Amino acid sequence: MVFNSVSFLIFFTAFFLLYWFVVNKNLKRQNLLLLAGSYVFYGWADWRFLSFLIGVSALNFYLGIHIEKAKNPTYKKVLLYIGLLAGIGGLAFFKYYNFFVTSFKDLFQLLNVNLNLQTLNIIVPLGISFFTFRTISYLLDIDKGKVQSTKDWVVFFNYVSFFPALLAGPIDKARSFIPQLEKNRFFEYNNAVDGLRQILWGLFKKIVIADNCAYITNNVFGNYESLPASSLLLGAFLYAIQIYADFSGYSDMAIGFSRLIGFNVTKNFDFPFFSQNIAEFWQKWHMSLTSWLTEYVFTPLSIKFRDYDKLGLIFAIVINFTICGIWHGANWTYVLFGFLHGCYFIPLILKGTINKKKKIAKDRLLPSFREFINVAMTFSLVMFTFIIFRSETIYQAFHYFKGLFSLSIFTNPIPPLSLSKLDTLAIVSFISIMLIIEWLNREKEFGLQINYIKQPYFRIGVYYAILFSILFFGAITSSEFIYFKF
Question: 466 is in which domain, residue-wise?
Fold first, then answer.
């Protein structure tokens, strides 16, 4: 049951009516309904791990209370480490056990030593990377005194399993989300309408942009050895657009559905393809993960390495982004993806410009030539690392790059089978429309936040045009959200 499905539409409509018209006058019942709805949503996706989600919630709920109560510092640390080991251990087992086993076997085979280690047929619980980071941050914040433990299990279980953000974020911290669960919520018309706009924009990006791009990128990456460099370049460009439209589209819908039921969750994207350097890009891409890693990984590392000046800062950033890469999955391609992004920061650190921010095209419609070049260079760096991200193996990524840098770059790209050049042109046109709309509204919360336009007929016309494009130009076969597998 995904956001762009009929089953979710039926589920959410029924939930919305019960939430606002039946239990709206009682906070406890409203929270109980929210928890029940979250478990129905998760169980529909994979009922086998519903008990695991409940167990994770129960463990961290009680650990949080006892960590706060603990007077003995040693006992407090033991409780904290139990929670951290349980969270990290769960991730290590479900996501990385087979990766570790295979990597060790391959390493020792290089030394002509055969290890009798067996991989397991492990099914990864949906959303484990997201709800695990929620629980870890909760325990760390209690330990540091940044937040008090909640004594209401319904509130905490809702924090862990909040269904709009359960499967692919955003990753909210307890100090911003739990207070929303503890106070009465009232239906706000303007907030709900804005939520509907954001849902519509997310659907457009997912169904019209991402799913249509997927048809081409799947074909290109599946047949990269027989395609000219021009097709490989097109595939790389479209995959960068695809993953952005797919993930930011999901985030827009998650935020929009949250607004419809009275919650404000963390903003996850801030038009990252208009960034002028890699530091700015990561301030705007998957912002909830970046914020989480900055607070709980990078900051402690930068303090630990501060005696090494810029070299220490480089170490902290490279380690931080390597962990960011590993977070995405058990594959050396993700490790290399994160490592390279960390290395991209080195010139900024050496020049001392890592924290300098400059708003693009301030008070102007178009960027300056220098700003445009900076944006194009940043996008190119990101696009090339997304080739590694998309590849199944390092070997495939290497040969993709090998095929990309050849004289066939100057030939016409070959379109995928059964896809005409006109179809390809239509997809590129929709991408252009998306980028133009987001550029014009880059100071807003999301691309379709056009309520500032005074002419209602024009606004309605834009909404109908987007709805029309979803219905008539959306991909026939919808692909799963990319970040569901993380």
Answer: 191-276+358-485
